[in-house]
Structures are given as C-alpha cells and as structure tokens.
Amino acid sequence: MQHVNHNLIRMSETRPENIYGWDLQQLESLVTGYGWPSYTARQIALWLYKRHADDFSQMTNLSKKIRSELASSHIISVQDPVEMQLSADGTKKYLFPVENKGYIESVFIPEDKRKTLCISSQAGCRMGCRFCMTGRMGLKGNLSTGEILNQVRSIPERDLITNLVFMGMGEPFDNLEAVLQSLEILTAEWGFSLSPRRITVSTIGVVPAIGAFLNRSRCNLAISLHTPFEEERREMVPMSKAHPLADIMAAIRSYPIEKQRRISFEYIVFKDVNHSQHHVKALARLLDKIRCHINLLSFHPIPGSSYRSPDQKTIEAFRDALDNKGIMTTIRKSRGEDIQAACGLLSCLK
Ligand code: SF4
C-alpha cells in the first residue's frame, strides 16, 4: 500500500499562485470567489499592467484586508533581466531566466522614433529551421503568459516601446493560448494599452493556429516564407512538412476579405538559393490577390551551416524584381549582429 505524506500535500496546496499574466476574466473569478466588490478585478489589473506593481502592498486603493488576503495566497512573479549586451548600433539584448526552462532573450531595437522590442514565446524551439541558432536548442518549454509579458514589463526601456514583434525565440503558434492571452493583455485598455497595429506575431505558418489567430486577435501576422517552393522550404524549415504552403495560403484566403489586414511575409535571402527569376515568378503566383508585403532579410551565417549571405546588390536586385511584379517589398536592416541579436542568431545554450 502506498504511503501518503499529508504534510507534503498540504504544502503544495498552499503554494501561492502567481497572478501575473491573468486576464480580467480570471481576476473577476478570483474576486467573486472571495466575495469582494466586482470592480476590484479591474483595479488589480490596472496595478499589474499599467502601474507595474510587484507587490500587493503597493495597491493602495484596495482595502488593507484585501491586500493582505491577496498576499497570503498569491504572488506577483516578475523578473528583471540578469544580463544586457549593447550593440554598436544601439540594439540591446536582454537575458531573462525562466523557471525550469533555462533562459530566454529579448532584443530592444531603437531606430529614430520607432523603438521595437522583439520578444520570445518559448524557451528554445522545436521547429528546427536550418538557418536559426534557437532551432538547434530544441524546445525547453513554453513560456507562460506572465513570462511573455514580463519581457515587456521588466526592461528599463519599457515606457519607450512603440512596437512589439514576436520574433524572438520560439514559434508563437506552438504556444498559441499563452500568446493570445498575452496579446489580449497587451492591447486591453485595462492592460498595457498598446495598439494591435503595432504588434506583429511571426510564424512559420502553423496552419490550424492561423485561423484562430486571425479570428481572436487584431494584431499583425507575419509568415516566414523564404521560398515559394514546397520542397525547398522543407529543406529550410523541416517542420513545414506538416504545414504545406497551399494550406497556409488557403487559411489566409479563407479569412473574409473585408476583415483582411495586411499580412507580411518574411523572406531570408540565401546566396544562390532563393532569389532567382524563377522565385520571383512563383512568388507572384503564390501571393496573387493577397494584401501583403515582403520583408527581405540577409542571412546571418551560423556555425556549421552551408548557407551563405548574399551581397547587398543581390538583395536589391531581388527587391526590384518583386516590386516590378507589383509585390511591395522592403529590405530590413540587420540590427545587433555584433551581439548575436540579429534574426536567427538568438540562442541561450547556457
Ligand atoms: Fe524556431 Fe523561429 Fe528559429 Fe524556426 S526561425 S527554429 S521557428 S525560432
């Protein structure tokens, strides 16, 4: 017969629950459970996500009794970055520890008035893209909503951020519910109040999640495309086997045109691989009648990869050829390469 240790069970039952990352509905259930006035939920949300309180004692418009009851059963789990690396171009890379999952990185990219924070949605990633250091780590774990939001909350430049991109470590649609809840809190007027137009979520195109994202969020969608050819894409993004291009395009096209927001396609250019006339024609066919934009990025070499970087002239010629086909195309400037903060270079193999 199994021996049950009741002391241990009692200890785990009373472990305070982390409240950081809860949405208004979850806070309302908490407040109702305690029998507190219903407006208390909103007050707590404002303290968490607008005033960035890290202790219940700071919530001075709640009664002392409520504050002490909250503190006895809940915690606000937030974490400052433990390291910052500064690039010559002003880009900053922050390192955060995450419980039981190692470390994650976030990148702050100042560019004139635009201040973009690139955040992670997972520790590591299981998509295994051949051009990405994070892919080599494998997946260490999904981030909770609180761990996603903490990257925005806990950097010193928090109040300067104008744009957010989910392009750090991980495939956001492999952690869909936590990402959607973080988007709700980031855009809610009781939350961070960021405009959904200033938030972009980037995916390799996990098909069932595309529809859910378009229906449940108003933020921008970016698809990592890299080639219009299925076979070639499987070489670059092995997990795309499960999510063929035809299905990705069908998911985007099935969204009602009147509600369509502009979708961007991220396209890493690899020398002598994916910038031929052949690619230009196939891209024009693939993206026909989709309101979209292509962002070209130069490949950043990673150890042991056979891919090479193209020169600037090659990228410009490819951009012009796409423009001539009527596809709006821009070349994205590489940032933070000297501190391994540029696209595809993030990795926390610690
Ligand atoms: Fe994962 Fe993105 Fe890297 Fe691919 S590029 S392995 S999806 S983090």
Give the SSE string.
Answer: HEHHHEEEEEEHEHEHEHEHHEHEHE
Radius of gyration from the alpha-carbon trace, in angstroms = 22 Å
Mean pLDDT: 91
Q: Report helical residue fraction.
A: 25-40%
Features:
single chain, 350 residues, alpha/beta, 10-stranded mixed β-sheet, two-stranded parallel sheet, 12 helices, 19% strand, disordered N terminus, binds iron/sulfur cluster
Give an account of the 3D structure.
The chain is built from twelve helices and 14 strands. The chain is of the alpha/beta class. It has helices at 6-13, 24-34, 40-49, 64-73, 133-137, 145-153, 176-187, 207-216, 230-236, 245-253, 277-286, 312-324, and strands spanning 17-18, 74-75, 83-86, 92-98, 102-111, 114-118, 122-124, 139-142, 163-166, 199-203, 220-224, 263-269, 292-298, 329-331. The strands form three sheets. The protein has a ten-stranded mixed sheet with strand order 3-4-5-6-9-10-11-12-13-14, covered by helices on one side. A two-stranded parallel ribbon has the order 1-2. The chain has a two-stranded antiparallel sheet with strand order 7-8. Helix 2 packs across helix 3, helix 6 (145-153) packs across helix 7 (176-187) and helix 8 packs parallel to helix 10 (245-253). Mean pLDDT is 91; it is low at 1-12. It binds iron/sulfur cluster (SF4).
